[in-house]
Each structure stands twice: as C-alpha cells, then as structure tokens.
Amino acid sequence: MVEKTPQYIEDDETLKLSIKIRLSGEMKKIDDDYLYWDKVKYLSKETDPKKYWNAIKFYRNLRTNKIKFGKYYFKYFMTEYIQKSLHLFDLNIGGNLGSNIGIAETDKNKFVISSIMEEAIASSQMEGANTTRRKAKEIIQKELKPKTKSEQMIVNNFITMRHIVQNKNLDLTVEDLLIVHQLITNDTLENEEEEGNFRRNDEIFVANFSNGDIVHIPPDHKEINELIADLCIFFNSEGEDFIHPIIKGIIIHFMIGWIHPFSDGNGRTARSIFYWYMLKRGYWLTEYLSISRIIKDTKNQYEKAYLYTENDENDLTYFINYNIKTMDKAFIALKNYIGEKQREAIQASKFLRIPNVNERQAQILKILNEDSDRILNVKEIENRFKISSFTARQDLNGLTELGFLQIIKVNKIKNNYVKSNSFDRILNSYFL
C-alpha cells in the first residue's frame, strides 16, 4: 500500500513557491525521478510539506497531456528526462540506426531466440512460475513436454512471443487480444473456459498478498468491451494529438493491467502487447530486449508505479518514468550481452583451427569444454542455431566421428550426445 496524496489546494503562495523550487533546481531533480508524495514530503525543509507538494503539482498540472478510455481520464507529463531518453531510444532502437548495436547479420536469429527465451522466462517468473532459468531454457531449446504449471507458463510465454513476432505488422483487434491471452494461459488456469475470454464478474481484484489489503479494484466487467475497443483504437491509429510511440506502448501496457480484463494472466498479456506495439512501430531492437527480466528484478518499483498512478489522479507519468528507466537498463544489458557473446565468439574461434570443424561445431565444443556434464540433442542444436534437423544431426555426428562426442541411446529413434572420455586428450593434441 502507498500513502494517499494530500488533496491539491491552490492558493496565493502556490505559484510563488513553484517558481522558487524551479529556480533552485529542486524541481528538475524531483521530476527526473518523478517522485511521489511519500518522498516529496521529506524534501521540504523550510515549507509545510503539503504546500510544497501543491507547488510541485501546480507545475506538473500546467504541462500535462490528457487521454480518455471509456469514461476514465488519465494524464501524463513529458519531463526533461523522459524526452531525453526518448531521443536516445529513437537513435538506438528504432529504424535503421539501431544497426550500430553490433549484431552481425549471421547472429541475428540466434540473438532473437535467446532474447525471446529470456523474456518468456522472466515474465512467467514474475507471475509465480517457479523454476530455474537453466531448466527453463532446456525445456524450450529441447522442446520438452512441460511437467508442471510453472514449466507450462514459460512454454506458453515463449510460444506467445514467437506468435507476436510473426504477426508484428498487423493491427490489434479484440480477437487478437483474446488469442494472445489464450496462448499465454493455455493449461494453466483452474477454469479452462477463462482461457482467451474476458472476465464475466467483478470478483477479481488486485491484493497485497503479504497482508491481504486490496490495492486495485478494476472497472466493472460490463465496461470491459468498451474499454478494450478504445484501447484497440489507441493501438491502431495515430489519433489527433501526437503521442510518442514508446509512450503509447507504455500506456497500452498500463491500461491492460489497470482494466484487468481477464481472471488471470493480465500482467503477461500486458507485457506481450507492449512488445507487439513496439515492434509494429518499427522499434526492431525491442526484439532483442528482455524488458521483463529487468522488471522482475525491480518488481516492487513496478507495482508501486501502478499504485502511484492510481493514487495521484491517474497520473501515468509514474508508470511511464519507471518503464523508460527499465528500457534503458534493458538496452545497457543487451549491449553487455552482445559484448559477452562477441568475446565468446573470439574464444570459440580457436576451436575452428581443428580440421573438419565448422563454426557451429566450434561453438558446441566450447559449450562442452566449459560444461562437462552438458547433455545435447538434435532438437536443442536445431533451435540454438536455427538450422534444420538434418544439419543439426550432421554436426553432432561429425563431432562424434572426430571422437569429441559419445552417443547415448534414448530410444530406437532419439539419441543424446555427451562429452566423450577422450574429449580433453583430443582437444589438447590440437592446442598443445
């Protein structure tokens, strides 16, 4: 729970105090972090905290933009920090200028699959999926049948992300939204009829599970159709007033969570539709960003951004500011990830000196050299390198013939491949 903001009361001192705060430089710091009342009240040293808050609100209200969904009004304020960040995002993750990130054309598929996996795993873990990243990756890469609800959630999210990438240029319809929800919740809800359907009652609410307090009561279920119809129009059309695409994407994300149109799976659906909108509007590098992984690590701030918005006159700036910071962290994480993979590629290049070993096989040798207990199969290699089953089998059998791998029969058709007993000796013979 968060403390409610004081009622805004404008008096003769408000304008003077607002100007004083701006001239002192305090206003910029407060708005760059877009602080809520629970922090602003401690910044006032010489002024009554409520009057100080009124001065902050006066400045924000002068520059707010308003939007409407159904009968509900929302507003947001384009701070200097947000505008600067949007400019940097436009330069780096939109259009063709994003190519300077350093992803080689031959590596793009590999990076996309890895990023979609990370997004699917993190988004599911945020909603309670309980499994390790390593196990989750193994399930996806080897296309194993999920054995638990947690594993099913992660597989569902991965399938959903692939579906969105394949349909990223299409408009959003109500039917599309229901399909996304059905894919995300497949075989994970107690009532199967709720998969891909809007809630039909008002027994749904968002609670603080630590103490049972209700923190959000969604709109009446009878309003869902109108609200979602407005959201689809917002998604598909430019509108009379320009709203930066990234801001629109974040607002769409918020609105699905706020409307809470489904009995369960609203968070995963909201993050998926944000991802869809960003790709549709040309921010192609979003395909490589694992935003949910950053959100998962700052989940408390994510939840508070929702609460701050709702408790301060539906001011979306709290949620926008949080998500802008999250995207910035995700972009930095991507650059670090690419740098790491490029270093790995350089390290793997030494394995290419081995006669009759191709680039993929060199990567496989590097994996086994670093993880002696790793068990490989054709499906994993096929998914990892985006190659055919035939080519994956050829790569593994080729390394077996060279003495690096040993085959373990699973059944009459399927084989697993592990590091052979002579792996280290053969490798050393080439490098020593």
Automatic annotation (TrEMBL):
PROSITE patterns: FIDO (PS51459). GO terms for molecular function: ATP binding; DNA-binding transcription factor activity. PANTHER family: FIDO DOMAIN-CONTAINING PROTEIN, FIDO DOMAIN-CONTAINING PROTEIN DDB_G0283145. It comes from the Bacteria. The active site is at residue 260. Residues 172-325 form the Fido domain. ATP binds at residues 206-216, 264-271, 311. It comes from Chryseobacterium shigense. Coiled coil: none annotated. Keywords: ATP-binding, Nucleotide-binding, Transcription, Transcription regulation. This is Fic family protein.
